[in-house]
Amino acid sequence: MEAITLSTSQFSSGEQSDTEAAWRANLIVSMTNLVFKAGIVAVLGGRELLQLILILFGASLLAGSAILWLWPQ
After folding, report:
1. Which of 3, 41, 56, 65 gives the lowest tally of CB atoms within 10 Å of its CB?
2. For the chain, which residues make up each domain, given as ranges?
3. Which pLDDT band holds residue 15 (cuts at 50, 70, 90)?
């Protein structure tokens, strides 16, 4: 996660379009990371933990999706 964040921050040189692409990329990577971690919980964790994670991560993924969809370009 940190490597991708650093890469995208170097990608954006300060121009508005580059900064826009960088924060969107960071948000997408964060959401992908949540999906991956939920998969790990599904394989290694118990059913109760998975249900809790799906609720919490689902809320985060919905919020992230809403930000990506509704934020003006």
Report:
1. 3
2. 2-70
3. low
